[in-house]
Design brief:
It is a single chain. This protein is α/β, with parallel strands linked by helices. The protein has 12 helices and 19 strands. Strands 1, 2, 10, 11, 12, 13 and 19 form a 7-stranded mixed β-sheet that branches. A hairpin with a 4-residue loop joins strand 12 and strand 13. Helix 2 crosses helix 12. It starts with a strand and ends with a helix. The mean pLDDT is 94. The structure holds flavin-adenine dinucleotide. The site of flavin-adenine dinucleotide (FAD) has 34 residues, from helix 1, strand 2, strand 14, strand 18 and helix 12.
């Protein structure tokens, strides 16, 4: 293998593979290093008993920069859009979601004043791009802009759905409102899971000449004048002109033998967004009247992703996700949370246990390594220019949207920065 590279990319998740596709348009020798044996990172899909499990519930935002970028890279996305309807649970009672102008007037959850408050809120969200924003957290924004408690609770349910965050006292209102606005444009559940995206990104990168090495991790990055030396866990060393890293903030900091003040500051301040997921494949759904539900009593989510995507090779099988949005610092008591998710599922889909094909429980998933707080935004902007020739990318940099949108757009942006840097 070549020992001198134009660019080394650390991480073979969405961000790293998107970066590889763009970087390879300009640089000849590009190497992606992924520590796992499989590519995909948090965007991977596991196949269990012929059923496709994403890592917890995954939906692509139709209006997001992620989908736009994937289309630019000619990635084919097949799947379906879940309708914005389903059930809300309040005081252990089921209500039809009042999210459409057809359902809202008939909602038994809200009285007329509350319905009016709800409409006002949605009109405000549709104008979010032109609204001036104070630097404030979500809770503060909600307290100022939503009058009735029940409307606040519904809105918190929507914000959890759109951002996976359950910490309104920390997350930036601006980021949340943009994310909610974007989610109103709808989402796509991808046929056979997000691995289909990863596989296409890998194929096109390899066709453009990118080398991919997996099953070995980057142990160290040293700065050598304007260039870098990258050492792998098997002690191989590579020289490279440029580096893009897409590892988590802590992992990234541990790789450097030099100091990045901005990254140190970020690592000291970050708060992750975490959740627990019960991923289940059933022979059939016991109660087909409920395909999607959000609880307002607890931060819980249920969705049958097979409702609009093909996620099993078995006829009639359904793949569904039950999810708990954890709040900041909440340690997931694995047994307790699993029971909570199972009980929630039993409430919606009685006797689901009789239909199980396969299942798994993931008690502590990092949906994001860095929740976009008001403080974080400024730091992330400075990160781009902190170390010339090295770009830090990945979902957690949150510069253009959140979650996969941020992962994908940060991969593209990292490539563009290096290409421009190379021209200087
Ligand atoms: C439960 C859950 C639900 C989600 N739902 C959604 C959703 O509905 N919509 C949405 O848009 N997004 C969603 N996301 C977020 C989305 O999956 C991520 O934003 C995206 O996959 C992150 O991509 P990434 O490349 O930035 O990071 P990662 O996927 O984490 O990739 C980083 C890669 O770097 C590798 N790595 C780390 N250190 C090293 C090293 N030293 N050497 C070599 N390799 C290394 C890791 O193994 C990993 O593969 C969800 C995430 C989770 C966990």
């Amino acid at each position: 293998m070549n020992l001198k590279w134009d660019c080394i990319i650390i991480g073979g998740g969405l961000s790293g593979l998107v970066a590889a596709n763009y970087v390879s348009k300009h640089f000849k020798n590009v190497l992606v290093i992924e520590k796992s044996h499989e590519l995909g990172g948090r965007g991977r899909t596991n196949v269990k008993d012929d059923c496709y499990f994403n890592l917890g519930p995954h939906a692509l935002y139709k209006k997001g920069i992620g989908l736009k970028t994937l289309r630019e890279l000619k990635v084919d996305i097949n799947g379906g859009s879940p309708p914005i309807k389903g059930k809300l649970i309040k005081n252990e009672k089921l209500y039809t979601m009042p999210f459409s102008f057809v359902n809202l007037p008939f909602s038994k959850m809200l009285n007329w004043k509350e319905k009016f408050d709800f409409i006002k809120l949605f009109l405000r969200i549709t104008k979010v791009r032109s609204l001036p924003f104070k630097e404030e957290n979500l809770e503060s924004w909600v307290n100022t802009n939503i009058r009735y408690e029940i409307v606040r609770q519904i809105f918190y349910g929507i914000t959890r759905l759109a951002t996976y965050s359950n910490t309104p006292t920390l997350i930036s209102a601006k980021h949340v409102l943009h994310q909610v606005h974007q989610s109103l444009g709808g989402t796509i559940y991808v046929d056979r899971g997000w691995q289909t995206i990863i596989n296409q990104l890998k194929t096109s990168a390899v066709q453009s000449g990118v080398t991919i090495q997996n099953g070995v991790y980057v142990d160290k990055i040293q700065k050598r004048g304007p260039n870098f030396t990258v050492t792998l866990s098997d002690h191989t060393t590579f020289d490279t002109n440029y580096v893009i890293t897409t590892a988590s903030p802590n992992e990234t900091m541990n790789l450097f033998d030099f100091n990045s003040n901005i990254l140190s500051e970020i690592v000291n301040q970050i708060k992750p967004i975490k959740g627990a997921s019960l991923d289940i494949a059933l022979k059939k759904l016991p109660n087909p009247n409920i395909q999607f539900a959000l609880s307002l009593d607890a931060p819980l989510y249920f969705s049958n992703h097979s409702f609009c995507a093909s996620l099993s090779e078995k006829e009639n099988a359904v793949v569904l996700h039950v999810f708990k949005y954890l709040s900041d610092g909440e340690e997931s008591d694995s047994k307790k949370v699993k029971k909570e998710l199972e009980d929630f599922l039993s409430y919606l889909q009685p006797n689901w246990q009789r239909e199980v094909i396969t299942s798994r429980f993931l008690p502590s998933l990092f949906v994001s390594y860095a929740m976009p707080t008001t403080k974080m935004e400024h730091l992330m902007k400075k990160l781009e220019t902190d170390i010339p020739g090295l770009v830090i990318a990945g979902e957690w940099t949150n510069q253009d949207g959140m979650l996969a949108d941020s992962a994908i757009s940060s991969g593209k942006r990292a490539a563009e920065l290096l290409i421009n840097y190379g021209k200087e």
